[in-house]
Write a structure and sequence with these properties.
With 423 residues, this protein is of the alpha/beta class. Helices cover 38% and strands 16% of the residues. The protein starts with 30 loop residues before the first strand and ends with a helix.
Amino acid sequence: MITQAFSAMAAEDAAPDPVIHEHIAPAPRVSVQAFCETVETAAAVQGASEDRRLHRAHLKIQMGGIAAAIEAYKSSPTPNVIIIETDNRGDQILAGLDALAEVCDAGTRVIVIGRHNDIALYRELVRRGVNDYLVTPTGTIDVVRAVCGLFTAPDAKAVGRVIAVVGAKGGVGASCVAHNLAWAVAREAKLDTVVVDLDLGFGTAGLDYNQDPPQGIADAVFSPDRIDSAFIDRLLSKCTDHLGLLAAPATLERVYDFAAEAFDPIVDSLRSTVPCIVLDVPHQWSGWIKKTLIGSDDILIVASPDLANLRNTKNLLDLLKTARPNDRRPRYCLNQVGIAKRPEIKPVDFAKALEDQPAAVIPFEPQLFGTAANNGQMIAELSSSHKISATFRQLAHDLTGRADSKSGRSGLLPPLIAKLLKR
C-alpha cells in the first residue's frame, strides 16, 4: 500500500511547526525496527517513537543500514515494519533490497529512507513492494506519518478529531464551554459530533442538553469486551441531527477508579466513525486523565483570570507541550471574565505570563449562562445573535481547522489585546 505521493517526499523538517491541521491516524500495536546510517535520521526515528500516535508500537533502532538489517534477519523473524536508511544509489539500493527480501517474512512492510529524489527510483521501489520512500533530511513527523499511514486504508473515512476540554481549576465553567463548543461544531460546521462526558460522578452534559438517557459512557467503560461501533451507537443519545451525547450517569452508586487505558477503546471506536469528538474532561489529575489529554488531537484549557488558574494553566501547557512535541500546541481560553468587585488578572497580563494569546475571552454573563443552564439549552439556542454565541462559533472553527479567513475575530479578544496583536 502506497501511503505518500512522490511530490510529498520533499523534506518538511525545515519548518518550525508541524502541519497543524493534518490528521494522522494512530498506529496499532505493531513492531517496528529501524536500521539507520546517520545520527540525524536515528534521532528523527527516536523522536517518532516518543510521539503519541506511535505509543502502541514497539520501535527499536539500530545503526548499520541495509547491511545490518540483512545480517539481523538471517537468524531472527522480521517485525511488522522495517525502516531502512541507505546512502546508495539506484542499482545498489535495489540489489540490497533484493537481498533483504530473501530473509524477510511475508507481509513485512518496508519504508526506505534515501538521499535521492528520483521518480524513476521511486516507481521501481514501489514495483518491488516497498511501501514508502522518504528523502532525507527526514523529520520526526515524516516518520510518524509514514508508519501510521501503512495501516490506514486509502478509502477509509477520515479519522475523527478528538478535542479535549479541561478546566485549569474546578468551577471555571469548562463543561459549559465544552458543551457549547460541541454544539457550535455540529451546528455551524455541519460535522457529526459526539460529546463524551468523562465526569462519571458529577457530569452535567445530560442536564445541559436536556437529555436523560438510560445508558451512557458507564455502560461502555465497564464492558470493554463489548465495545464496537454498533455498541457505542446504541449508547449515544441524539441531541440534534449532527450532535450525539455519550452521557455520564452522574450518580454515586459506584466508585469511578480507572486504569490509564480504560477509555482508549471508547475513543478509538468513536474515531473510526465520527468526524469530531469533544471530551469533557473533569478537573482531576490521574493516569487516565493525563493519558486522555496527551492522546487528544487538540486541547483547550479553560481558566478564570486569577493566580491559581494562571499557575495551573502554565503547568498544563508546559507538560502537554513537552509530551506532544509534534502536535499543535494546546490552547487556552479565559472564562467568567469581568465579575464585579473581584480582583482579576487582566487578559493581557495573563497572556504575557504564558507567552501565548487566549483562544477566546468569554465575559461573565450570569443571566445568560444561568438561564441557559436551567433551561437545558445552549447559548446559541437562547440567543444566537449574542456576541458569546459568535465566540463559540469562531472557537469551533479554529479548533476543527475550518476557520473562515473572511470572518473577523470579533468576540474572541477584547479591544486591548486586539490592538496589541496589531503592533
